[in-house]
Design brief:
Blueprint (H helix, E strand, L loop, with lengths): L1 H5 L1 H9 L3 E6 L4 E4 L1 H7 L17 H17 L9 E6 L5 E13 L2 E10 L1 H19 L3 E6 L5 E4 L1 H7 L3 H4 L13 H12 L5 E9 L5 E13 L2 E10 L1 H13 L9 H38 L8 H32 L7 E5 H12 L8 E3 L8 E5 H17 L6 E8 L3 E7 L32 H11 L3 E7 L3 E9 L2
Parallel strand pairs: 12-14
Antiparallel strand pairs: 1-2, 1-5, 3-4, 4-5, 6-7, 6-10, 8-9, 9-10, 11-13, 14-15, 15-17, 16-17
Length: about 500
């Protein structure tokens, strides 16, 4: 013990290196330690001297360590740092940390000692765990991920998802390049493709191509290509999505809807479209409620000014305004509630047998209060004997909505004509006006919720009435359609099956 204390050479050398140094005798008693190891384990200078080595080890490791230590002294072979043991150390406060030890036996004055070089590998373990975590994500991803040399294009690594889809083993792919699985690309075209990455012009390149499996079959893919490095070597990382289902879905849509293509960016635009719809809805509600509420407040204020008996006509005028605006607000709220019930499938229909003339009389009577100066509703002929089996409330709602629209979007001194046609299979009701009409390019969107044609934006309306009518009729097996010509008018048609 005194020999080590008196020997300044050990202290000078031990303090000059970055590793922790412990020297223990054959009884595993610590006889010397440097500042690095003292700090590592949380002890003051020379605080470890004279202590048994076991205080630095977890309790469950102490007995096995005794055996290993004795065997090591007998064999007396040096273990270098590169081949060191991964252990856990215990600090003075009881906390544990991973460490690596390199052991060097030596003899002095016929006594055996072991010098241990100790390294705290906490940060290395964290890095290894992070690397292992990301590698598992890389390897277990069902998307195809390729890492290939940016010059030779040979594969450096290929994940499980790619091997599964392509049908190759990792050994087979190590002998191939990206060109072997992408038949559309040549060496020259691939060089041109990745040139913006190599030059730093682009951070990522996205494109569609096809991949060829081991059995020769192909499938469409979307490739996201980025540049990375392994050491000093530039590599390309390709994340590949199998878009077979997307392509099939697109083809189905194209077959059903002419002159429409499904763009890949639609998925990315979905959230933006939803936000725009919310904004449009809030703007619509704000505008449609504010205008009638302002009229109600104004009429209410003016009512208090007409106190004389001979001013009853003025009072009546403002009371009528209030009633009209309240009815308008009630209709808007009814429409919103209808949308909620339709969207949640809470609508219950009640099919009964009723007289068509009864419904039309009621609809026309209520619409007469909305007519502008000189407007007339032309009543359909020969309908008194027609009875139909349908939901009476829905028929009333549909005809009221279409008739009110005809009045709203038609000028003064025009006719609005109701026509009824009946055959063995169906009943058809037409409402024809001489109004503004609908621009041709906007006609495909007429039944979309909240849609309003560009030529009627200054006219009050929510853009949900036609959508509600369309949904109700569809649920009951009916059809709503229209024909329209700009500045000449529109004809809306309701057709329901009789049988």
């Amino acid at each position: 013990m005194k020999l080590f204390e008196q020997n300044n050479i050990f202290r000078i050398l031990s303090e000059a290196i970055s590793e922790g140094i412990l020297i223990v005798n054959d009884k595993q008693t610590i006889v010397a330690s440097n500042t690095v190891v003292n700090t590592m384990f949380g002890y003051e200078e020379e605080g470890l001297n004279g202590e048994n080595l076991s205080i630095l080890l977890p309790k469950n490791s102490r007995i096995p360590h005794e055996t290993h230590f004795k065997d090591f002294l007998v064999k007396g072979k040096k273990r270098s740092m590169g081949m060191g043991l991964d252990l856990e150390g215990v600090r003075r406060d009881g906390s544990k940390f991973p460490l690596e030890i390199g052991l060097n036996p030596f003899s002095l004055l016929r006594k055996k000692y072991v010098m241990a070089l100790v390294v705290d590998i906490t940060e290395r373990k964290k890095a290894e765990q992070a690397i292992d975590h990301w590698y598992r994500i890389f390897n277990e991803s069902l998307n195809e991920i390729f890492v290939f040399d940016a010059e030779s294009f040979t594969f450096l690594d290929v994940n499980y998802g790619a091997r599964l889809n392509l049908g190759y083993t990792i050994e087979e792919l190590e002998e191939k390049s990206i060109l072997d699985v992408e038949p559309k690309l040549t060496q020259e075209s691939l060089k041109r493709l990745i040139r913006p990455l190599l030059n730093g012009v682009e951070e990522k390149i996205e494109f569609e191509t096809i991949h060829r499996r081991k059995d020769g079959s192909t499938y469409p893919v979307e490739v996201h290509l980025q540049l990375s490095t392994i050491g000093k070597k530039k590599v390309c990382v390709a994340i590949v999505l199998d878009i077979t289902e997307r392509k099939n879905y697109t083809q189905i849509l194209e077959n059903k809807v002419e002159q429409r293509t499904l763009q890949l960016s639609e998925a990315l635009k979905a959230e933006k479209k939803l936000n725009e719809l919310k904004t449009k809805f809030l703007s619509l509600v704000s505008h449609e409620f504010k205008t009638p509420l302002t009229s109600i407040l104004t009429s209410t204020s003016l009512l208090s000014k007409y106190t004389e008996e001979n001013q009853q006509d003025k009072r009546d005028k403002h009371i009528d305004t209030i009633k009209t605006k309240v009815r308008y607000l009630d209709n808007i709220l009814t429409d919103f509630l209808s949308i909620e019930r339709l969207d949640s499938d809470k609508v219950k229909y009640n099919t009964t047998l009723f007289s068509l003339s009864k419904v039309i009389n009621e609809v026309v009577y209520n619409a007469n209060t909305l007519l502008k100066e000189g407007q007339r509703i032309l009543y359909p002929k020969d309908i008194d004997g027609i009875s139909i089996s349908f939901d009476e409330k829905i028929m009333t709602l549909a005809l009221s909505n279409l008739l009110h629209n005809a009045i709203k979007y038609s000028p003064e001194n025009t006719n609005i004509e109701l026509m009824v046609e009946k055959d063995e299979e169906s009943l058809t009701i037409k409402i024809k006006d001489e109004g503004l009409g609908i621009p041709e390019e906007e006609q495909p969107f007429v039944f979309d919720r909240y849609f309003r044609a560009s030529n009627v934006l200054t006219t009050q309306g929510t853009g949900i009435g036609l959508n509600i009518v369309k949904q109700h009729m569809s649920n009951l097996g009916g059809i709503v359609s229209f024909e329209s010509e700009l500045n000449k008018g529109s004809t809306f048609v309701v057709k329901i099956p009789i049988k």
